[in-house]
Amino acid sequence: MRAVVAAFAALVVCASAAGAADASRASNTVVLVTHDSFAISKPVESAFERQTGLTLRVLQTGDAGEALNRALLTAGHPEGDAFFGVDNNLLSRALGGNLFVPYAPPALARVDPVYDLDRSHRLVPIDHGDVCLVYDRAWFAKHELPPPRGFEDLIRKGYAKLTVVENPATSTPGLAFMLATVAHFGPGNAPWTFWSEIRNQVLVTDSWDDAYDNRFSGSSSHKGTRPIVVSYSTDPAAEVYFAGKPLPRSPVGVVRNTCFGQVEFAGVLRGAKNPDGARKLVAFMLSQQFQAGIPLTMFVYPVREKTPLPAVFRKFALPVAHPLELSPATIAANRDAWIRTWTDAVLH
Amino acid sequence: MALSHKVLGRLLRGAAAAAALAFLGLFFAYPLVTILKRGLGGSVPTDVWLDGGTRQIAWFTLWQATVSTVLTLVAGLPLAWVTARLSFRGRGLVRALVVVPFVLPTVVVATAFLALLPSSLQQGVVPILLAHVFFNVAVVVRVVGGYWSRLDPRLWDAAATLGATPVQRFRRLTLPALRPALAAASALTFLFCFTSFGVVVILGGPRYATLEVDIYNLATQSFDLRAAAALSLLQLAAVAVIVVVSSILEGRAGTRIPIAGDLATARRPTRHERLALAAILGGASLLFGLPLAALVRESFATPTGVDLTFYRALWQETPTLLVPPWRAIEYSLLYATGATAIAIVVGGLATVAIAAGRRGGGWLDTIVMLPLGASAVMLGYGFVIGFDAPPLDFRDTWWIIPVVQSLVAAPFVVRILLPALRAIDPRLREAAEVLGAPPGRVVREIDFPLLLRPLGVATGLAFAISLGEFGATVFLARSDRPTLPVAIYRFLERPGATNQGTAAALCVVLMAVTALSVATADRLTARAGRL
User: Does A310 touch chain B (CB under 8 A)?
Assistant: First the structure.
């Protein structure tokens, strides 16, 4: 015991010294402020640093909504130079907050114009993905029930108490799914009728992690009991890629006509200490190299045309051809009211 | 001569109070006032306070915290008794292990609970209360047990000899003697439950919210800073009232029991006691062992069998984290060491000043405790906008993280040291002074040796709290310098067996580091105390 204690004390001292030495600030740094789902592989990061001579530092400030709100709080005195992770649902809030200065990298010409939603180019598209209903294949096979084919199936007999959704007031995929029902059922009361009908059938969680990891039966943790969850269209690829062993078939499937399209943007922050570095970083995020790395790090799709997809994506997670959509202006005008209506219909 | 000693002592205590206040003023009051001012913009938010929804949330916050505290005391006292009074094999281990649940990320514990609860209990009040007990029993065992083990057991023996039944001894002797420690532990537990966040979000679901949860949602999701600031003020005011009440209870020292000093206070259990011991340890291992065992199992159960794959993954680059996961151990130890040092200094200074204050130094006591009641997200926001420009351009320095963690750890230091300091019989000091010992020597030869063991308890707990701190750390930590809880959170956020398994392995590492550090603190002070 004495030896263990001594060794432990020595370890603490060494770790402290190492950490403190490491903590000295590097000069010529560019800081990317982003959400928790951002990821970059080491080779791509090194390529950026080699090409530009800059050091990349990443600051993750919560989920997409949290990160944007914190950027709004610090508008003009940003915590970094560039920002990544504004999506189409939050686009108007970001632009209204005067957070970004215009910059159009040359590679924008290679991006499909459907993603280029901000004509002033304060924000440029980097990736896109979809929020959909995802289901547990094994569960439906075992219970001899066909997987759902659309929203309406959730109301059908046999599908009661099978679904987990996220609260749109506290979760980005939850918001996207609520918008998907509005886009599908049309304006007026139809979406809220749908929600009142399923309110006792769905389990609502505050976050995607809780829904997917704890409540959904199809995730690798096998902790949950419900076989349908609101999640991402790339989950079938992610479950195979992170399975830890080869899988011939993905354990989860996607209900493809429930998908709501999401586009994520990056921009140069107003008041950045290193605006030149920020422009280089945004330009790099549209480069072939960064775009090709997007699928296996962030599990969304590149926006740059002709970027090759990795095999696991080609096999298990091809992009959804025509996802449900609402214009950023419509979302901006109605988001808060819709969230209130949803809360009244489902939670109260 | 005597007068100058008195003046010197008063000056020193004034300086101690000033130093503690300066630290809390700069790193707590200033950022908090900054964000509250930004949120309220000069208006008085009576509309938010009087809102029906607010009242409902405030009521839920209050009653769940009260019930949780009572349940935690009931569950914790038997364990405090066996670790303080009975000597048995593995006592040190039990004392160290009991702290483990306390530092685990709430996400992880909530998940472990979900796996064990029947599906009818997966969202609601019952799982919230159970999880609160699970987390906070450590506080009762460490704070009350630590105090208990220093009381002279011969008094109990005397009472027994005089014919007092066990129930009488408990009611007339144990309870009054433990009152200061019970008040301290209850206050800490209550504050933790009152400001509970992760447990309520996951186990309560969207239909239950504490003030803290509502503040978080308003501030980070709806971006309604005004309402968030209004509720933060409400929460702070409630916490201040709680702290004042409990410090009055704590300061009203009940029966003064002699401190045992070097005397062994634990003895071999009698036959009856052995039965009780087995029952208590058995019950504890069910409540605490099952969720923890589930985690450990998860870290070894890989898709290809039972092996070390997830532990080997700690050394591999991963897109989930910007550094290999093992680096999180290094940053956790670095930050926790710094935070513990700060918490001991600030908490120690505050304790000295509070104990010397004429009316119990109540106001300083309240101020030190307030960080426990402040909303982590609002304090984080305060740091982000308050420390953004010279001369206070601190928000991306590395040491800001230990500073934030120490704000949460320092109240524990005070709550542990203060009852211990007050329990020292003033006649001991007076005797020393009469015999001509200068104040420095009194502190060195009376106070310090008697405070060494509580100081060990405080150090271990402060270290554990800093290791486990999540709310404020995740707000300020750079992505390439994650702590263990932050790294665990990042892995849990991604789908796939490897990510979930690596998170479980990191949890086991966090548990091991915690148990080791607490045991180390116990050992070192126990040994030094014997000198």
Answer: no
pLDDT per residue, tens digit, chain B (531 aa), is 455 767 877 888 889 999 999 999 999 999 999 999 999 998 889 999 998 889 999 999 999 999 999 999 999 999 999 999 898 888 888 888 888 888 787 877 887 787 788 877 778 899 999 999 999 998 999 899 988 988 888 888 889 899 888 889 888 888 888 988 999 899 989 999 999 998 998 899 888 999 999 999 999 888 899 999 999 999 999 999 988 888 788 776 555 667 766 567 788 888 888 999 999 999 988 888 888 888 898 899 888 889 999 999 999 988 788 889 999 999 999 999 999 999 999 999 999 898 877 655 678 888 999 998 899 899 999 999 999 888 888 888 899 999 999 999 999 899 889 888 887 877 888 888 888 888 788 888 888 888 888 888 899 889 988 998 888 888 888 888 999 999 998 888 888 888 888 999 999 999 899 888 888 887 877 766 544
> Is the same domain home to A153 and A254?
yes
- Domain check: are A135 and A69 in the same one? no
> What is the maximal distance between C-alpha atoms in chain B?
78
> How many domains would you assign to chain A?
2
- What CATH number does the domain containing B51 carry? 1.10.3720.10
**Domain interval for residue A169:** 130-261+319-346
Q: Does A64 lie in the same domain as A36?
A: yes
ipTM tops 0.95 = no
The terminus-to-terminus CA distance of chain B in angstroms comes to 32
Q: Find, among B113, B260, B261, the residue nearest to B200 by Cα.
A: B113
Distance from the Cα of B432 to chain A's closest Cα (Å) equals 36
Global confidence as pTM = 0.87
Query: Domain with A35 in it: what CATH number?
Result: 3.40.190.10
How many C-beta atoms surround the C-beta of residue B390 within 10 A?
A: 6
Indicate the number of domains in chain B: 1
- Quick one: A112 and A86 in the same domain? yes
Q: Three-state DSSP class for B390?
A: coil
Indicate whether A22 belongs to any domain: no
Tell me the residues of chain A between 158 and 187 that have a Cβ less than 8 Å away from chain B. Answer: 167, 169-170
**Nearest CB partner across the interface for A206, out of B206, B334, B479:** B206
A206 and A329 belong to one structural domain: yes
Q: What is the CA radius of gyration of chain A?
A: 22
Selected residues 278-317 of chain B with any CB under 8 Å from a CB in chain A: 298, 302-304, 309, 317
Whole domain around residue B417: which residue ranges?
Answer: 2-530
Looking at the structure, do residues A183 and A329 belong to the same domain, yes or no?
A: yes
Are A91 and A180 found together in one domain? no
In angstroms, the CA B264 to CA B203 distance is: 43
A196, A334: one domain:
yes
Residues of chain A with Cβ-Cβ distance to B115 below 8 Å are 223
A7 occurs within a structural domain: no
The separation between CA B195 and the C-alpha centre of its own chain, rounded to angstroms, equals: 13
Is the Cβ pair B381, A70 closer than 8 Å? yes
In this structure, what DSSP letter does residue B287 have?
A: I
Q: Which two tokens stand for residue B339?
A: 């935070």
How far, in whole angstroms, is CA B489 from its chain's centroid?
21
Identify which of B522, B449, B321 has the alpha carbon closest to the alpha carbon of residue A40: B321
Angle value at C-alpha B235, between B232 and B236, nearest 5 degrees: 85
Cβ contact B395–A219 (<8 Å): no
B519–chain A nearest CA distance, Å: 8
Do you know the residue count of chain B?
531
User: Are A205 and B206 contacting, i.e. CB atoms less than 8 angstroms apart?
Assistant: yes
Residue A323 inside a domain? The answer is yes
Question: For residues A313 and A320, what is the distance between their CA atoms, to the nearest angstrom?
Answer: 12
Q: How far is A88 from chain B (nearest CA, A)?
A: 16
Q: What is B131-155 written as a DSSP string?
A: HHHHHHHHHHHHHHHHHHTTB-THH
